Automatic annotation (TrEMBL):
Species name: Anaerococcus kampingae
Name used for this protein in its record: ABC transporter permease
Keyword Cell membrane: yes
Record's keyword annotation contains Chloroplast: no
SUPFAM superfamilies: MetI-like
Length: 265
């Protein structure tokens, strides 16, 4: 049976070649051409020497960190209590349901909530100006969009912890806090790292939410790629920034995988 299915694995490798390796190679090739189609290294020189690109890179990392931290702050307690809930499958379905709605529709729905006539602005006492096109609004919407991808792996890791471990800890005289700190938290770190990876990586390259909710006040590498491809038509510079994003994502994935291996040890 194993040999039979190994013959079908070429479909998997073909998919990787066409949809992952080939686009990255095309980006790499395009990054060596300027807006006039001339071969040049100026795109890389401009990226690493221009202060604006350095600021955009730091801003992208800061934004991704804040979104990840905010979602983790909400997701872990929710996942912990969800693992103890009676109707956990139904609640989990309600968590997943928003991911079925188009991102653009969700973003435009928040415009109505965040503008000066919106319900949230009125609730916060900001009806005169609203909170649309501000950093808190952008972080809040991005965190809402990414939240299910943080909850799912954490919930699965907590829910899969054998109840016998918790019972044995309590029988040995440990308090609930000690049981959580020494049993539940360490055994759920794989889920936490998976959730951080699932949220941090996409948050590095956000551009749609930054445009709709953040306006032009929030500039990240994702919006820079969009600008170079759709506005300035400088595909070489856009490809260079895209490659830098891909390299940073691989570095983050490697770091988190290494941390996951350390926790397993």
């Amino acid at each position: 049976m194993a040999k039979k299915y190994q013959k079908l694995s070429f479909i998997y490798y073909l998919w990787i070649l066409i949809f992952i390796i080939a686009p990255i190679l095309l980006l790499f090739y395009q990054s060596f051409f300027d807006i006039y189609g001339n071969f040049t290294f100026d795109n890389y020189i401009a990226y690493f020497s221009n202060k604006n690109y350095i600021i955009m890179t730091l801003n992208s990392f800061l934004t991704a960190f804040l979104i990840t931290a905010f979602t983790l702050l909400w997701a872990y307690p929710f996942s912990y209590f969800l693992s103890k809930a009676k109707h956990k499958d139904l609640i989990l379905l309600l968590v997943i349901l928003p991911t079925w709605i188009n991102l653009v529709l969700k973003a435009y729905a928040f415009i109505g909530l965040f503008n000066k006539n919106g319900a949230i602005a009125g609730f916060l006492g900001l009806a005169s100006e609203g909170i649309l096109f501000t950093n808190p609004a952008f972080i809040l919407v991005a965190s809402y969009v990414e939240l299910p991808f943080m909850i799912l792996p954490i919930f699965r890791s907590i829910d899969s912890i054998p109840k016998e471990y918790v019972i044995a800890s309590e029988d040995l005289g440990a308090s609930k806090f000690q049981t959580f700190r020494r049993i539940i938290l360490p055994l759920s770190m794989d889920g936490v790292l998976s959730g951080v990876q699932a949220v941090f990586i996409p948050s590095l390259s956000l551009f749609l939410i930054t445009r709709i909710i953040g306006g032009n006040k929030i500039i990240t590498l994702g919006t820079a790629v969009e600008q170079h491809y759709l506005v300035t038509q400088n595909w070489g510079m856009g490809s260079t920034i895209g490659l830098v994003l891909i390299v940073m994502m691989f570095l983050v994935i490697s770091f988190l995988n290494k941390k996951g291996g350390d926790y397993e040890k």
